[in-house]
Amino acid sequence: MGRVIIDMSPSLDGFIAGTGVSAEQPFGDAGLRLHRWLGLDDGRPEESDLQAAARMFETTGAVILGRYMYDVGIDKWGEDGAFGRPCFVVTHHPREPLARGRTTFHFTNESISAVIARAKQVAGKDRDVLIAGGADLARQCLATRLVDELRLHVVPVLLGEGTRLFDRAPPGTELELLDVSTSRNATHLVYAIR
Amino acid sequence: MGRVIIDMSPSLDGFIAGTGVSAEQPFGDAGLRLHRWLGLDDGRPEESDLQAAARMFETTGAVILGRYMYDVGIDKWGEDGAFGRPCFVVTHHPREPLARGRTTFHFTNESISAVIARAKQVAGKDRDVLIAGGADLARQCLATRLVDELRLHVVPVLLGEGTRLFDRAPPGTELELLDVSTSRNATHLVYAIR
């Protein structure tokens, strides 16, 4: 059965971006520090990082993005649109789909539950739906209680302030650690939501 | 060389207590959920939990506590005072020390840096100073940049709201993961602060 998965890279103090987020600096003053494990910002991925990165997409059939992530990302994702799969962009302003190579972006203002249902259908019953960000979308998805798995790449840095990954998550949500692996630049934690 | 160590049990979303904290419910509506790994709340510690609990005190020469933690804990800690070591309670209202078995509580309104220095002196050069809580004390200690190690027992639950462990930590604090171990009820992470 395909799963619904949130996959994000927070700092140890729980921020997925620093302060001063803008189109030029989508992660604010955190820069690419939170994505060094992916080989950005002069990082050198280790074996566990490469496995965590591969896992992000190997069973993914569809992706859900927030509108802000799309806006700041689309010019950087190149001619292939980076994801190589159907992507659903949650926005107040739906419009015609945009194709970039193997990636098609669908813009929807349906409810989060409806978007997840549609993404599951498009992914097919054996492939996963990946919720790639940002934090506001992740929060809304958690609130639907339709998320099956949390994959966190916890980066060994404290940012102090910025955009929090977890804000008003559904209280009392019990998790089960399925896997942990470590590298110099991240602790990769996979949790099932019970 | 003795280290200065913060040791705490946050939920995956970063709370060390839920809402509704009171003398009767020191962890609010989280109850003892965050301390199940220690054998409380019907928990059954696994080997990794026992090791993490033992590590909390085996090299500890002195303990620093916030006043609130002391106030809600003192009646529960029994005739031995639980810690078995000199404890420094940071308070606005200093008073005479209180002895409970092998534990002596010293009440101080000195600056956090001065309290850490005094605790280090009492611990001796080969033993550690343990900062046991709460969150406000941990925050003040981090701000001094005198903390060497963070030991987090991350509990697989989302609380949604409550008392955050990390709030305005010193931005850009780089960490190094020294050890990780897991159990059903906690992921034990040990970080050095660089």
From the structure above, extract its key features.
alpha/beta; 194 residues; nine-stranded mixed β-sheet; Dihydrofolate Reductase, subunit A; homodimer
Please sum up the structure shown.
The structure is a homodimer of 194-residue chains. Chain A is built from four helices and twelve strands; from the N terminus they run E-E-H-E-H-E-E-E-H-E-H-E-E-E-E-E. Chain A has 194 residues and is an alpha/beta fold.
Whole-number tally of structural domains of chain A:
1
Model regions low in confidence, pLDDT < 50 over at least 5 residues of chain A: none
Summarize the amount of helix of chain A as a percent range.
10-25%
Q: Whole-Å distance between the termini of chain A?
A: 16 Å
Just give the CATH class of chain A: Alpha Beta
- Number of beta-strand segments of chain A: 12
What is the beta-strand fraction of chain A?
Answer: 25-35%
How much is the radius of gyration of chain A in Å?
16 Å
CATH superfamily of chain A: Dihydrofolate Reductase, subunit A
The residue-averaged pLDDT of chain A reads 95
SSE topology string of chain A: EEHEHEEEHEHEEEEE
| Main sheet summary of chain A | 9 strands, mixed
What is the CATH architecture term of chain A?
3-Layer(aba) Sandwich
Plain-language structure description:
With 194 residues, the first copy, chain A, is an alpha/beta fold. The first copy, chain A, has one domain: Dihydrofolate Reductase, subunit A, CATH 3.40.430.10. Helix content of chain A is 21%, strand content 32%. Chain A has four helices and twelve strands. Chain A has helices at 47-58, 67-73, 112-123, 135-144, and strands at residues 4-8, 15-17, 60-66, 86-90, 98-100, 103-108, 128-133, 149-154, 157-158, 163-164, 173-182, 187-193. In chain A, the strands form two sheets. The first copy, chain A, has a nine-stranded mixed beta sheet with strand order 5-6-4-3-7-1-8-12-11, with helices on both faces. The longest helix of chain A has 12 residues, at 47-58. The mean pLDDT of chain A is 95. At the A-B interface, strand 9, strand 11 and strand 12 of A face strand 9, strand 11 and strand 12 of B.
